[in-house]
Known about the structure:
alpha+beta, seven-stranded antiparallel β-sheet, 3 helices, 25% helix
Amino acid sequence: MTPVLNVEVDMFSGRPNPRLRLGDGEATRLHALIARQRSVLNDVRTADQLGFRGFIVTNENTGEIYRVRGRVLQMGEKTYLDRNGEIQSYVLSILPQDVRAMLLPLLDAR
């Protein structure tokens, strides 16, 4: 079954967060990236901040919610290292141009 995924850009801005429902190919690719085996991170601290706080990916088939910020992937109570930042890079690549342009200045420098 093809996953049905929605991506929300989590922004603390006083405006509604941009949301995107992924097409079949995009959803399949993102789901595969999320499903890869990764190293568990035991000590992850996230600061409340203004601006970009990551992406929230919702799987409508399962109800699972994932949070992606840089090289960190949160799945339920577990946090994983996405060593190369592939998930965030892929999400950025499929966002509408105007949303991507808004986010690029807010992302951590690599």
